[in-house]
Amino acid sequence: MVWPLARFFLSLTALFSWALAGTGAAQHSDDDYEDIDPWLGFESPAPTADSALVTAFLSALASTSPAVCQLTVSSIGNHWGRWGDDDRIGVLSDEVADATLRDALNRPVTDPAALALLAASLAHQQPCIRRAAARLLGESRAPESRRLLSTALRSNSARVREGAALGLAHAENPASLRELTGALKDHDQGVVRMAAYALGELEDARAVKPLGNLLGSKDAGTRATAAWALGQIEDIRAGERLKGLVGDADPGVRLEAVEALGELEDYRGTNALKDALKDKDVRVRRAAAEALGEVEDHRAAEPLVQALADPDPVVRRLAAQSLGELDGVKRAPPQLIAALGDRDPEMAIIAARSLGEIGDTGVVPALAAAYRSDNPRLRYSVVAALAELEDARGEAVLSMASNDRDQVVRHKAVEALRDREDDD
């Protein structure tokens, strides 16, 4: 979905305010300023959900199974398929009325009575109803919604406070930073975890320190959520604290810490990630193999080579992929070259790609031999690797591949040969 222009200007104003105040705000890319909606203010007028529709919707959710309820709530705002007011192409003839109601629920709720009803539903006994209320409140751009969520975050009920924090997570409003940071000190761990999650959604570097303090929590879920949130913020100041969690007693915490270190892409996390490649939990080893590729530190080459012998095929594949992403690797590891003939076809394909990225022309004969495979995807990867290497010995294979029985392989080979002629 295209970012609304109003939210764009809000974030832009906040960014300049943080810069002038000397804060350590998270960095933004050019994409943050290009993703705007030229149709804002000129959309076709359409009804939004009022209190009657919200009441009917919540009642219907309450009467269904928890699984169906969760699936329904997760679709709010996703706009699957073609559902425009004047465009009913692909819609069954007796779905039109239902589609109109669906469209109304997918638009931000602004009706004061409906917002009040949603705020009251944050105390509902069914968790899915609370989630629906939090999501609809959070995605409403009405100032009243923001006020209701702030009030709910101070409720005497931990259930309501948790739902309010979830709503603020959906809102992603920088103005919520202070109150969410304060909620990290709540006596209920469910509220603390949800506030940490919401701060991760904000991606505001000012939350690094308070989230870092949660990494020492006695509650494993809190430690894991804080680690995840720090990974979303991507501030390298969190790296030292996260490294300490790679050896945590809880595997879920270790997993989130490893993934967060990968998000930071800081070479100082390499040693901790190398240790995680030996973790007894396969999920942690997979995350470590992938994270080392994101960090791109050449010191990870040897442990990644060792991981090519891991009993788990996904770890082996991720290790092979990450080897191609490391900086400063001059020679292709023999184990990676041998993987061109691996019984796992996906492993062979990944190995070919990584060999091309490493840039060691000594692998050209091995790639030429791998081109004899019956697997067109492997032949394609070999051609792509040879195109990267730009070694004259590979031209014979590229010429052969320009007549390959697979059209996609032929196209790739012809393209590679054309590029070489242009370079000459």
Topology at a glance:
Elements: H1 5-20, H2 31-34, H3 51-63, H4 66-74, H5 96-106, H6 112-120, H7 127-138, H8 143-152, H9 158-171, H10 177-183, H11 189-202, H12 208-214, H13 220-233, H14 239-245, H15 251-264, H16 270-276, H17 282-295, H18 301-307, H19 313-323, H20 334-338, H21 345-358, H22 364-370, H23 376-389, H24 395-401, H25 407-423
Helix pairs in contact: 3-6, 4-7, 6-8, 7-9, 8-9, 9-11, 10-11, 11-13, 12-13, 13-15, 14-15, 15-17, 16-17, 17-19, 18-19, 19-21, 21-23, 22-23, 23-24, 23-25, 24-25
Report on this model:
This protein is mainly α and 424 residues long. The chain folds into three domains: 1-25 and 40-202; 205-329, Leucine-rich Repeat Variant (Alpha Horseshoe); 333-424, Leucine-rich Repeat Variant, CATH 1.25.10.10. 62% of the residues lie in helices and 0% in strands. It has 25 helices and no strands. α10 runs antiparallel to α11, α17 (282-295) runs parallel beside α19 and α19 runs parallel beside α21. The radius of gyration is 26 Å and the shape is globular.
